[in-house]
Each structure stands twice: as structure tokens, then as C-alpha cells.
Structure prediction request, 378 residues.
Amino acid sequence: MTDQTLRQDVLAARRIVVKVGSSSLTTAAGGLDADRVDALVDAIAKVRARPDAPDVVLVSSGAIAAGLSPLGLDKRPKDLARQQAAASVGQGLLVARYTASFARYGIRVGQVLLTAEDASRRAHYRNAYRTLDQLLAMGAMPVVNENDTVATAEIRFGDNDRLAALVAHLVRADLLLLLSDVDGLYDGDPAKPGTSRIETVRGPHDLDGIEIGSVGKAGVGTGGMVTKVEAARIATGAGIPVVLTASSHAADALAGRPTGTLFQRTGSRSADRLLWLEHASTPRGALHLDAGAVDAVVHGGKSLLPAGVTKAEGDFTAGDPVDLLGENGHIVARGLVNFDARELPRLLGRSTRELAQELGAAYEREVVHRDDLVVLRG
Prediction:
């Protein structure tokens, strides 16, 4: 399959998620750059004006960076409290800027703030999808960001590249466009002579031996090329192709021109929220499984029952994510637990029928239901 054919697949996308980083929206001092925001909006509005216009969801960083200057901060703070304060100030400025810019085209903006917990749980996942889908159906422009003002260190996505990949999965997108301050993935440091841009990545083996930098140029964001490649891995594994290019090339990328790096899809499409459980959740504890339970969960597609659990660790409540460990201590799966940590000790190693007879019908259930469980290794 040729690169040109793959870019035709880009043109055929009916729903696109566009992610833009802080460094592509702000000045070196940390304030929003109105010209850069307008240029991005121009590119998106042009796509939306096509007769066969696809839906577009914008995942935008920049809230913390936008709040630095108004709060008298000369650089991104390291402590969570001041990051949250900057986000609180900056998020309003960011959305106001987008609202004004999209208004030039008669497009309304809808703000959607997410935390990792919002899509790991079944009900939250459905609600997030319905909100985004309804905004698109009503012609609004969803602008998504992590809810930095309330997210704790334990429930943060860590970077908006990963958030964008998961949002692309959530809204069942046909394309993820990652916009950066670099015009694609290079086979070395792009600042050094002799390196070249990689036009197409067809699978993980194409990245063997490639040096991937870990920081961006501007220093106002949390991502770098590592997070973008990881986001591409998550999205392509879920059946969504990815284009990585510079924000200044957004219009070319959306027009299907061969700019940046194209990551070809490697997996099959799925509407399953378990991708979020795998990539967006932080386990609050761990359950140790016996050999029979490991086999049932990993190879049999079964739920985890109390009889197969030998030990519980951590301080978690019902509905929290926990890691499931094999007898050698290796993580084999992750799931949402149905019991509090304090309840589990008296349940371990016992059958659900026995527990129901002694403790009541409420205890005749799985520790982790198979619908709330993702296998991490075979």
C-alpha cells in the first residue's frame, strides 16, 4: 500500500480528532498567541466547510501555559497546587480565545473537561461519549482538555497526547492528527545534520533503533516525541491512523497532503472502553490470583471470583481499578473491583454460594466482572 493511498484514507475520514500542544499555541513567555490560535482555527474551519465535511473534535493543551503570565509565573510550576491554579485561570482564557476565533466562522464552541476516571467507569464513559456526540450533532466544536483544576496526581492522564488517543477511541474517530512544534518523527535529533523525517510507520518494528526525544522545544508543556509516539501506538492499535506533523502544516495534513509522519493502523476498531482502563487508569491496589484464576481470567475470558484470590493489597473502594497479579507477582490484568479493600479478606478463597449463604445475596457476585477487566499479558 503506498503512502499516497494512505493519505486518501485520511481524506475519507468522517470523524477526526485534532490535538494541539501548548508550545503550538503560546508565546515563549507563556501567554496565548492569538495568531497561532487563529491559524489553527482557520485550518479546522476550512475542513468543516467542505461539502463532505467530517466531524472534528479538538483536544487542546495550553490551559496551564496560558495561566502563567496572568499569575506572575515565569515558568511552569512543579507543584500540583500551582499547576491547578494556573489551569483555573488559563482554561477560561483558552476557551475564550477559541470561542472568539471560531465565531468568525459562525461556529460555537463547547468545552469538555475530562479526568481519567471519567471514562474508565462504564456510566462515565457512556456520558462522555453522548456529550461529545451530541455537540457534534448540533454543529458545535468540542474543545477537550484534561480537567487540570481538579485532577490529582493519581488520576491524571499525564499528557494530552495520550488523552487525544483515548478521545479518538471514545468518539470512534477515523483519524487522529497530532500537531507539534516538529514536522514529524525523525530518525534522530532533527536539529542535527544527517537526520531525515520518517514518512510512514507501518508498525512497531519501523521504530527499531530510532532515537526518540523526550522534551519539546518550548518547555511549556509536559509532552515530547515520546508521548506522541506512545499516543500513536494506542490509537493505531485501536484501528485509528495517526498523522504527526507541525501545527503550521495542519491545513496540509487535513487536506490529505503527505506532510509529517503517518502511523498506519495496526489493530482493529473497537468501541470498548477497556482501552481507557488499560491506558488511563491508575491502580489503587492489587489482587493476587492462584494459577486457576489466572488461567480463567487470561485465557478463558472469565470473571474473577473470590475463590481465586489469595491476597489483597492497597486501600481501594468498590469501583476502583486494581491490578491482578499472577503467582509470580507479575501483572496479568487490570479491572474495576466490586468490593472495598476492608471487605475482601473474609471473602478470599471462598465460593460465591458459600458467601451468599453466610453473608447474604449481595456477596454472590464477582470480585471483578469480565466486562470490567482488561488482560495486560497472556
